[in-house]
TrEMBL record:
Subunit structure: Heterodimer of an alpha and a beta subunit.
Job description of the protein: The electron transfer flavoprotein serves as a specific electron acceptor for other dehydrogenases. It transfers the electrons to the main respiratory chain via ETF-ubiquinone oxidoreductase (ETF dehydrogenase).
Alphabetical list of Gene3D superfamilies matching this protein: HUPs, TPP-binding domain
Keyword field: Electron transport, FAD, Flavoprotein, Transport
Protein name: Electron transfer flavoprotein subunit alpha/FixB family protein
Keyword Electron transport: yes
PROSITE patterns linked to this entry: ETF_ALPHA
Sequence similarity: Belongs to the ETF alpha-subunit/FixB family.
SUPFAM superfamilies in the record: Adenine nucleotide alpha hydrolases-like (SSF52402), DHS-like NAD/FAD-binding domain (SSF52467)
Names of the cofactor(s): FAD
UniProt xrefs under InterPro entries: DHS-like_NAD/FAD-binding_dom, ETF_a/b_N, ETF_a/FixB, ETF_asu_C, ETF_asu_C_CS, Rossmann-like_a/b/a_fold
Amino acid sequence: MSNVLVLIEFSPRGEIAASARGLLAAAATLGSPVAVVVSATPLADDDVARLGELGAAGIYSAVTAAAGTVLLAPAVDALSGAVDAYEPAAVLAANSVDGREAAARLAVRVGGSVLADVVHVHNGNGTVVAQHSVFGGAYTVESVVEGGLPILTIRQGAIEGQAPTVQAELKTVSLGSNAEGVVLIDGFHDDPAGSARPELRSAATVVSGGRGLGSSANFVLVEQLADTLGAAVGASRAAVDAGYVAQTAQVGQTGVSVSPQLYIALGISGAIQHRAGMQTSKTIVAINKDEDAPIFDVADFGIVGDIFTVVPQLIEAVKARSN
């Protein structure tokens, strides 16, 4: 079975990123997943066990003092070393800022090609086939790399399920440091957590509100339903432009792209710019009093009604069922 490398990102606090589950699940459909990890100290036993739980058959642990002081270059060095060691059929990374840049740099170094913002992968007679959602989510297209190593960035949340748990085989290597042409990290500062809700991009459930809420005061209805379901809060661009909620909650072509298990749209008309950022959600529920709203074209379940009547009833029903 071919090896498939997966770049595992860590938070500055040393936690495995939520994107690891989907990346390893995608890799398992193509071959044998090998997690590539860069750290300043040898990988902790808990992290090795966790990566095995997520399906990493192998772990390529690159240890270098530059891991916390040099931006991205150590990750590219580690991926390049892992490519030499494992001769993979593909390399996967999260479609994050770091993941995209690491993928691009690796492609230049090893002569590969990048397939970006992939929402599904499969093995087509020995060829890695990537699927993309394009033109505002209206079409799904497939792409392959002809010649060279396929390097894919996977949209967070797009891959369902989890790879089978295995006993990961750990390979630890030491990386040298190259001080030329690199960007140094002077320090980092965590953004203060605004709430205890899940992070929007990787949340399993997202509740979004649109201009139909009518005011920032009414937007609390979105937050109440989100808290009842343990969901993240999103919004359409119209709601953001109207000042109902911060721009960081914007879902769509000029905001965040999400692919949760459940996406609930409240008072959102469903403009193509919004659908582009949520149409790959596994199940879409729309509540809108306009029966002709375009959001119903992509919804799995739709309720034509006043959100100020329907949503409070929905909240009470969910609470009653959970008690």
